[in-house]
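Customer escalation, tier 2.

The customer says the design service returned an amino acid string that "doesn't look like it belongs to this structure." They asked us to rerun it and document both sides in this ticket. The original structure tokens are below, unchanged.
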């Protein structure tokens, strides 16, 4: 038994080194008869993933759109793309970034870099209210409302922060979004210090962003200043680790140049173990100093908020299991995933079992808190849990997912942790994140795993040099993992969240009765427009298949304010409002009112029309914006 496993492991290692990829599927010992029987009962891969016309998927898959600045939504298990939610980038398809409100949210930015979506939680379980996402590039977070799948708030740039990558991790009752900086800069922001002074003059930050329990509104709560350690991935605690959050660092060397080599010198980097409840209490007790309007805690002066934990080597993911006791962290440059026991962490803190101190912050004694180093394979990144005692770790270099058994381990397993690796499946290729529904809750769904691969290398029809990213669906209900489906995604998915579809009932129309927009108009006859010197204001009604008014007259130089109401109370009847030549396209959902302000900066007649096909007479839904030359005297309209 032992020989077989060892042989398999070394074979895999050899194959990986030779080819950069390896397939382990045939190697692990599977209880094959039981597995085959259960997969036979489940039907073929096609049957398991086929969702017939008119039927619906069981789950939503929300996956980050990376540098597209968007969030993609698909159904599971069909993997059919349902919608793209624009967050940090304008989207003419939904009119996002064209009306006044969304334009103001985007500010001067035209893009973002979304890595980690996080669903809101109540009592450690998804509650279906909000989806939070981060912007690695411009230090922001956003809140999407799952009642209408729309971005409702963008918070940021977060003060005193650069590179909001370790984000957005939701606490058990959505008290906070906890975020950490990937980059470090001289503080306060805008201060200059030469990069050569990186280790002494630059700082990173861990932030608690407060979530309003009613509205979901985000605000900056407090921050903890840290050395310039490039915080990477994080997660939040539960159960015994309730009130804690964890981030890895890939640069405790504090290198500022040639990071590939210089940030990979130490065998162990640090993770930050942050007691966010203690941080919150310290701020309440006045133990923080204000920096750019935010209470900032110096962890050297406030013991108990921050501890460092050594983790090998150049770690990336750190993930808390459903019980909250086991924390798995993977070092990209060593073929193991390290499991920490939070109960031992707590005891080590209580007994002050520190192996060192770094700038006044205790470093916990690794040997005392570690449960084991599981030999999962090459290039381990992220770990997810099925709620049945198993963990699944993505292996970037090996292009595989390893399934392994969580502690508690038997003596035999403990003596040889290779025994805990239960299965391995090849993915195509170079997997980044993987996701199991509810893995970060108390009770994961435990049936599907989606592997989000960085490269597809010719597995899809060629569309030129930039190939579609590949996402693969793996059935994890049996002892052995089974690859059942593969789909493309736009660039570039990182993490994802899976939500049971029956957890939410999205609204289908905005009820007219609940509209409290003072600029709404609900019939063509109520539609108006008025002109005062320098300004035209129109309240426009849009209803199949007319705009009222369908002629709006302005003088060149006027500011034009349009409030457009989609009068419809029928689901899926959407109207658009585009003005030819004015780079403007507003999309209005049933019962919604949107406002748009622009300058009538050129003389002429500019047709406007409905951009969203809405009826047989959709093409007739048009009108004119007349922009007259400026008059000498103030004229009244019409
Ligand atoms: S990171 Cu992308 S593969 Cu930004 Cu979560 Cu690990
Ligand atoms: Cu309204 Cu097309």
């Amino acid at each position: 038994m032992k020989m077989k496993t060892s042989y398999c492991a070394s074979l895999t290692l050899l194959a990986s080194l030779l080819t950069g990829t390896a397939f382990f599927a045939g190697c692990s010992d599977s209880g094959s008869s039981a597995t085959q029987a259960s997969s036979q009962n489940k039907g073929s891969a096609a049957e398991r993933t086929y969702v017939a016309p008119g039927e619906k998927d069981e789950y939503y898959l929300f996956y980050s759109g990376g540098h597209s600045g968007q969030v993609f939504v698909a159904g599971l298990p069909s993997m059919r793309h349902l919608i793209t939610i624009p967050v940090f980038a304008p989207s003419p398809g939904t009119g996002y970034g064209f009306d006044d409100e969304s334009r103001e949210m985007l500010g001067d930015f035209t893009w973002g870099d979304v890595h980690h979506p996080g669903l809101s939680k109540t009592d450690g379980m998804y509650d279906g209210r909000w989806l939070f996402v981060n912007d690695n590039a411009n230090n922001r977070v956003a809140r999407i409302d799952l009642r209408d799948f729309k971005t409702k708030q963008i918070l940021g740039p977060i003060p005193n922060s650069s590179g909001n990558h370790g984000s957005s991790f939701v606490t058990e009752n959505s008290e906070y979004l906890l975020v950490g900086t990937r980059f470090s800069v001289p503080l306060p922001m805008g201060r200059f210090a030469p990069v050569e002074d990186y280790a002494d003059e630059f700082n990173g930050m861990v932030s608690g962003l407060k979530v309003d329990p009613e509205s979901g509104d985000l605000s900056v709560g407090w921050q903890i200043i840290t050395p310039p350690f490039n915080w990477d991935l994080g997660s939040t605690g539960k159960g015994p680790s309730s009130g804690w959050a964890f981030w890895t660092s890939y640069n405790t060397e504090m290198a500022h140049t040639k990071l590939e080599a210089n940030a990979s010198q130490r065998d162990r980097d640090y993770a930050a173990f942050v007691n966010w409840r203690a941080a919150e209490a310290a701020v309440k007790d006045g133990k923080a100093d204000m920096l750019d309007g935010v209470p900032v805690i110096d962890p050297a002066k406030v013991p108990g908020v921050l501890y460092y934990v050594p983790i090998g080597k150049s770690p990336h993911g750190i993930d808390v299991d459903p019980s909250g006791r086991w924390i798995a962290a993977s070092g990209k440059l060593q073929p193991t995933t390290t499991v920490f026991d939070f109960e031992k962490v707590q005891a080590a803190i209580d007994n002050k079992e520190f192996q060192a101190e770094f700038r006044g912050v205790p470093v916990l004694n690794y040997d005392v808190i570690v449960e084991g180093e599981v030999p999962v394979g090459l290039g381990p990144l992220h770990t997810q849990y099925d709620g049945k005692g198993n963990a699944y770790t993505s292996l970037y270099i090996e292009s595989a997912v390893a399934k392994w058994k969580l502690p508690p381990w038997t003596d035999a397993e403990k003596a040889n942790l290779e025994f805990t690796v239960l299965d391995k499946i090849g993915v195509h290729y170079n997997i980044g994140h993987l996701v199991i529904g509810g893995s970060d809750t108390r009770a994961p769904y435990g049936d599907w795993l989606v592997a989000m691969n960085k490269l597809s290398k010719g597995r899809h029809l060629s569309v030129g040099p930039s190939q579609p990213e590949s996402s693969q669906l793996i059935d994890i209900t049996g002892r052995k993992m089974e690859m059942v489906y593969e789909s493309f995604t736009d660039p570039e998915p990182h993490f994802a969240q899976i939500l049971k579809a029956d957890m939410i009932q999205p609204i289908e129309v905005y009820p007219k009765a609940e509209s409290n927009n003072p600029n709404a108009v609900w019939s063509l006859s109520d539609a108006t427009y008025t002109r005062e010197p320098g300004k035209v204001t129109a309240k426009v009604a849009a209803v199949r298949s007319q705009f009222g008014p369908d002629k709006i007259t302005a003088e060149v130089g006027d500011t034009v304010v349009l409030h457009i109401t989609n009068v419809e109370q029928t689901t899926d009847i959407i109207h658009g409002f585009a003005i030819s030549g004015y780079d403007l396209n507003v999309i209005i959902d049933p019962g919604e009112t949107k406002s748009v302000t622009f300058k009538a900066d050129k003389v002429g007649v500019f047709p406007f029309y409905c951009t969203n096909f809405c009826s047989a007479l959709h093409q007739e839904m048009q009108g004119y914006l007349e922009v007259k030359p400026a008059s000498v005297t103030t004229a009244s309209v019409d």
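Tier 2 assessment: The sequence is consistent with the input. The domain at 512-628 is CATH 2.60.40.420 (Immunoglobulin-like). The CA atoms of residues 580 and 607 lie 6 Å apart. Sent an explanation to the customer and offered a walkthrough call.
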